Amino acid sequence: ILTFRGVDSFFYVWVNGALAGMSKGSRVISEFDISELVGTGPNRIAVQVIQWSDASYLEDQDMWWLSGIFREVSLSALPRTALYDVFAKPTLDRTYKNGQLSVDVTIRNISVKAAKGRVEAELLAPDGSALPASVLTKAKLAADFSVKNENTEVVTLSADVKNALKWSAETPNLYTLLLSLKDAKGAVSQIVALKIGFRKVELKNGNFLINGEVIMIRGVNRHEFNCDLGRALTTDAMLQDIIQMKRHNINAIR
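^ thats the sequence. predicted structure below, dont judge the formating
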């Protein structure tokens, strides 16, 4: 899978002279399955970035116009039966005390035969320690699957977490969700790690609530831009922006 995380504004991708695809969404991830276009030995990837497109007008804001590849480009190799997509939905119960987690896992099989296996999940506390079994209730953190060739299947895992450490802007507690894919023989073929936070967002009586508390939004509009780096921002540059905003009591960014 060839992944582009940010290209402005419109680009084509070729692999070994064959067109792999195109994308116009400059600030969304673009993925290309190039499995059939690569071979043994050296391979060549070519990218043509076009400065203006119809998408430029859709994305038009009062901002600096800078075109090019401004975020990471990566190439990843997955097994023929792989975790294709993970949708984790952490929230809180009615008391805002206990966490509730539901995870939809999409398994894709691109081999010529049907595939069987098992998906297992593990939840780590914000400090990285494993959660004891006494903390997890109603836990279904493993499921068997059987996927036909050239097809996908979705399995759902779930668990409740007693006295979950809640996420908020002031206490950004993040748990780690580890997902393991095992084949029919029990061998691990893939592991995916995600950061998740237990929170509940609601609108009640015209108020915006996070974890049951009314929040007054003090927000700003932000464009990814730096006078020295353009749009290719580093983590340090973004952190400095956030620190400056916190100093001015800003709690929301668009």
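The radius of gyration is 22 Å.
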